[in-house]
Automatic annotation (TrEMBL):
Feedback inhibited by histidine. It is an enzyme of class 2 (transferase). It comes from Streptomyces rhizosphaericola. This is ATP phosphoribosyltransferase. It comes from the Bacteria. Residues 49-203 form the ATP phosphoribosyltransferase catalytic domain. Residues 207-278 form the Histidine biosynthesis HisG C-terminal domain.
């Protein structure tokens, strides 16, 4: 069986399990379940702390896992990302009290508090900065107020918690992160079970990003209509009972669907419908 690590809690967990369910895999119903076997898909899921997943995968005990890019890089594990999943997006940045520093170039001799010691250490070395790092497991915003550090480095989503603590974000982003599928470095890239798993997740990503659009169009406007809805290969065109009309079916980007419907209507198209795509293979 393919052995897959899944986050057991936190921001990654719910979205990861939802995507796996959409991809046709069984998922646990109780948070206390640590292992779930899906015999029909020949997969065994292990629900682990997100920070530990890269370590388990790099050891070879598990074949692949879902975790955050930031957690993968911070772990220093011998693993690599092989698919971006598009959720749990965040930015990793420095913050401090106003007037303390403008960016890493001012950090020499200072102390930085973070839960991501590996990422910060690598970034400081790359920047040629000599600063101390204090590892905290969470709530790093209070480190400055309590005198533990002059700078913090943490995940920033909206920046609200930083501002509430009287801090300002400084310098360029250290990195951007999102949920990713990872495997051990050197693992066979053509493993058929892994490839099938990735195809299923890619199918979910496409299904979430596109809708199927159907509409009726007069033949003389068809080329202009097709230019608006070119599809992935090309649209499906079918003649209608009424002469001079055709039915068109095409996949379009969900975020563009309303605008395209407006343009088609102005062109003379009618009976314009969109439907959700639940799964696909490209």
């Amino acid at each position: 069986m393919l052995r897959i690590a899944v986050p057991n809690k936190g921001a990654l967990s719910g979205s990861a399990m939802a995507m796996l369910h959409e991809a046709g895999y069984q998922q646990r119903k109780e948070s206390k379940e640590l292992v779930l076997v899906d015999p029909s898909n020949e997969v065994e899921f292990f629900y682990l702390r997100p920070r530990d997943i890269a370590i388990y995968v790099s050891s070879g005990r598990l074949d692949i896992g879902i975790t955050g890019r930031d957690l993968l890089l911070d772990s220093g594990a011998d693993a690599e990302e092989i698919l971006q999943l598009g959720f749990a997006r965040s930015t990793f940045r420095y913050a401090t009290k106003p007037g303390t520093a403008a960016g890493p170039q001012d950090f020499d001799g200072m102390t930085i508090a973070t839960s991501y010691e590996g990422i910060v250490a690598a970034h400081l070395e790359e920047s040629g900065v000599k600063a101390s790092i204090v590892h905290l497991d969470g709530a790093v915003e209070t480190a400055i107020e309590l005198g533990v550090a002059q700078i913090i480095a943490d995940v920033v989503e909206t920046g609200t918690s930083m501002r509430n603590a009287g801090l300002e974000v400084i310098g360029d982003p250290i990195m951007t992160s999102e949920a990713v599928v990872i495997r051990r470095n050197g693992a066979p890239a053509d493993d058929p079970k892994v490839q099938q798993f990735l195809r299923r997740l890619q199918g979910v990503l496409v299904a979430r990003s596109y809708v199927m659009m159907d509409y009726d169009c007069r033949v003389e406007h068809l080329e202009r209509a097709v230019a608006l809805t070119p599809g992935l290969e090309s649209p499906t065109i079918s003649p209608l009972h009424h002469e001079g009309w055709v039915a068109v079916r095409s996949m379009v980007a969900a975020k563009e669907a309303q605008r395209i419907m407006d343009d088609l209507y102005e062109l003379g198209a009618r009976a314009i419908l969109t439907t959700a795509i639940h799964a696909c293979r490209l």
